[in-house]
Amino acid sequence: MSGAISEAAEAAEAPHPRFLVAVLAFCGVVVAVMQTLVVPLLPHIPALTGATPTAASWLVTITLLTGAICTPVLGRAGDMYGKRRVLFASLGVLVAGSVLCAVSSHIGVLIAGRALQGAALAVVPLGISIMRDELPPERVLPSIALMSSTLGIGAAVGLPVAALVVEHFDWHTMFWASAGLGLLDIVLVLLCVPESPLRTRGRFDVLGALGLSAALVSLLLAVTQGGDWGWTSPRTLGLLVLAVVIALVWGRYELRVTTPMVDLRVSARPAVLLTNIAALLIGFAFYANSLTTAQMVQEPTSTGYGLGASIVVSGLCLLPGGLSMVALSPVSARISATYGPKTALALASAILAVGYVVRFFTSHQLWTIILGATIVAAGTAIAYSALPALVMRGVPVSETGAANGLNTLMRSVGQAFCSAAVAAVLTQVTFQAGGRTAPTLHAYLLVFLIAAGAALLALAVTLCLPAQRSRKTGTVGRDLTTSLAQEGA
Hints:
Strand content: under 5%
Shape: globular
């Protein structure tokens, strides 16, 4: 029965591009909301489940791990077996994970459910690749700009919504809601998203996928848990060494296999390599905004800088930034189309740095904190919109799923490093205030300086990207379409 429905949907005429873009962007927002859904709940998890604070932190860590692993792997699977098919499977995993969290209060079950939710992060690069395959050239840039920005939009929207649920409803409600939204996504994909006929030939690189997964798990475990284990502990250092060894062996294997999991020769091209490095730095700079804003305004007034705001108010501080990302995605697309995505990414990196300078000097009043956070979000919106366009200029159309997955992975790795850096600063630079240990104001200011430095490094990397071939309006969109036609032929 389900097979018949799927075949009928695939045989249907392609939907209007506006519906396709709206559905895929909605899928991206829902998946991004899932990534931050439990953040306001974390302080309450030990009391609600009987788990230790360390175990509770895995509700965030596990989504980072599974998202990092599944994003490039499922992107490659989409290139080979059908992007719509893999998108559908990713959303199904999201629903399964949400239901698992909704029906249990056991920490082990919750971690398993969150692992499944994290795997759905592949929806974003898959959506970008579908847009490249299906849309007319004039709609490619604005559409991928919106799709890429959903990662930031969902994060900004998810925090205040989750905070409202935590304050006024049973905490399982947000998981039931996420399961319902995931099912709605599945129905919309069936009705509005066609399957692309483009395929990468060859066998799926199972060993390459396993090797990449092992290297990522080793690296991200060391980065995310190093603060608790100790950065010089045998466990942390051992995992870092293991990650390097696996990566070297994996890289040598990938250079020899016929259809590799990641085409390292393509990924080593300056246009692709530098774009991925910039993505890592942008991910680092963006995430510092999300990690510090809510915590800073919730700090008690006894600290001398905290505002003692509620969970809901602290979450709402990020909402203007999310709205600005929605508004700026078409602006970013216009900048990329007129001046090129390299210019757009350079501008975005500069705006990110300016946002943290604003935060550095104006972190004493709620409205100035919101202003600084919104400027950072604006820079993130432009950056996230430009990155996919830069990636797709440098890879064959048959590898867009894997290439966008790798770029999204680099953002996630940047966020992991940012989380470790912020945690290290805020737990080390402390003082006693109101009978408790709290980060000093200088700790937050140091985080802003580090994030601004990451943004400036992203700017430097962007300026080193190869010169663009043309600055005529629509060049990127036409280039993408031309390459698609050539590959199809």
